Inverse folding.
């Protein structure tokens, strides 16, 4: 139980590091929560006009998801799954930001890379194809999350597939406002060609 608790705490604390917020502040671009959608993730960082900052945010958010699972795995697969769930929860509900965090799409990709890289590859390809076709990051995230949950049972054991499905469900629920805007036709588009 102590090892599971340690995995949970480490996962949550890693997840709660708001890289998007920290990077935009350090770079002199202000508080990312006052820009665009107000989200702390890479998509909103891209709206500052800096591809470099957005890419770094994506990489660091992905890395913390991967790291949480790898650290948890030191204590076994069960601890790795606990860390996976907690790093996602930490990103979505960071204690440092009054429990108002991001949507954990990049962090989930990092988790998938550590748990089952073929599922991560499938989800990433689906995200990219959807984003290129429709220019909606939120739609790409929703479709990719669903794709990952669908592919997982064919690649991993039932327990891991259930965790991946749970993460996908959390991501979809966190996009509730985006879903409403997509249905209303008012969702913001992204430009992958922005400087």
């Amino acid at each position: 139980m102590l090892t599971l608790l340690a995995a949970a705490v480490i996962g949550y604390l890693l997840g709660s590091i708001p890289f998007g917020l920290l990077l935009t502040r350090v770079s002199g671009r202000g508080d990312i929560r006052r820009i665009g959608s107000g989200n702390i993730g890479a998509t909103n960082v891209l709206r500052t006009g800096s591809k470099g900052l957005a890419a770094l945010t994506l990489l660091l958010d992905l890395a913390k998801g991967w790291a949480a699972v790898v650290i948890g795995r030191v204590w076994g697969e069960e601890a790795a799954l606990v860390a996976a769930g907690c790093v996602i929860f930490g990103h979505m509900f960071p204690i440092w930001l009054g429990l108002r965090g991001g949507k954990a799409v990049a962090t989930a990709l990092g988790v998938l890379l550590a748990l089952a890289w073929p599922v991560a590859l499938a989800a990433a390809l689906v995200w990219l194809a959807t984003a290129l076709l429709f220019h909606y990051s939120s739609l790409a995230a929703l479709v990719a999350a669903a794709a990952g949950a669908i592919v997982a049972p064919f690649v991993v054991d039932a327990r891991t597939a259930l965790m991946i499905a749970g993460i996908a469900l959390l991501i979809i629920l966190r996009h509730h406002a985006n879903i409403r805007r997509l249905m209303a036709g008012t969702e913001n588009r992204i430009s992958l060609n922005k400087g």
Notes: The chain has a mean pLDDT of 93. Residues 2-184 form one domain.
